[in-house]
Amino acid sequence: MIDPALLRKDPEAARRGLQSRGGRYVPALDEWLALDAQYRESLKKVEDLRSKRNASSQAIGKAKASKNEAEAQRLMAEVSGLKEEMAEAEESLSPLAEKTKQASLGIPNLPHESAPVGKDETQNVEVRRHGAPREFDFVPKDHVALGEDALEIFSTAEGAKLSGSRFALWSGKGARLIRAIINFQLDLHGQAGYVEVHPPLLVKPEILVGTGQLPKFEADLYKTISADGEKAQELYLIPTAEVPLTNLVRESILRPETPFPLKYAAYTPCFRQEAGSYGKDVRGLIRNHQFDKVELVWITKPEDSLAALEQLTKDAEAVLRALELPYRVIALCTGDMGFSSRKTYDIEVWIPSEKKYREISSCSDCGDFQARRMEARFKRDAKGATEYVHTLNGSGVAVGRLFVALLENGQQKDGSVLIPKALQPYCGFDRI
After folding, report:
1. What's the pLDDT score for residue 230?
2. pLDDT tens across 384-395, in order?
3. Which residues belong to the active site?
């Protein structure tokens, strides 16, 4: 969430920031401002009543000391009335505080000044490219015709039979290639100083609130409810390993000796209902309800997060460079950025059959937005005040989309697929 002091101090600046995101979040800001003003007014009333009660209580003592029993009785009746008024005011304060908090959870992060301003993806800015798309002397097949129909190394039909549409099943060399991609990425990121984590796939609702998936994106999540006697437990399947990794510092005050930056990497399956993507990429592996991803998360001091975003992006790029895949990096404009991000780079890999670049990684600096929701703080020295950490996350990279890129870019005229040299020791073959 955004620092409430900033919203109160300069609501117009916040409104301009939200307008640059397309304006649809401005009503959420207005709702919060109205509730916050109401809450502060109610809080002041409670504090004034408490102050008046305390003053009257002291006056009772003085009246009794001076043997002015009539005045003492009057003051005691006044205190009794104040207690009843206070109880009523305090009773209304708690639900109002909760309403204000819930309203704040509907406001996205404010864009950083260095993020390009724009209304949608058409106004994203290309930052750099690496590698030239391959020139084919034949018509390249798409990954479905190549991998599912010809090589038979994955099957969306089998996935649908087991789980419904937008699920896939890999087998034989396809399954081995998936495993190789995962291990290759984890080793590469481990060499870059990331601590590998193997987290739970089911998390509590408050963990998703911490990173911004709840309450805004509940329609995209898979929820499970387990009954334990009379007590039911509600858990969600993670949509990305960003969720458990970032929450490792939840409700913590990191000590001055903490070796910033903290850098975590995790492979997990990810689960998304893709509620807002009806009709998009229904064929093949591009947009499935279950997919594999290696995720990277950084925890930094505030002054280091923008530089960390540059390095995080380069770490994700290193995967594509090592596998000799052409790609480009784009800076997302304010209207296309994710809910929790203040600045984002997308990495897009070249897909020959579509003759265009496709997102394979998204790297974001969230500033203190998630840290405030998680109460994740640190101290610069033992006697110093606490400050909120900054959090960053990035795909390092999406496994299924990398599988697609490897098939399409490595395909040969005879229908086989060459495996990049860097990946061959992991899968045990050089061609499918």
Report:
1. 62
2. 999 999 999 999
3. 272, 287, 359, 362, 401
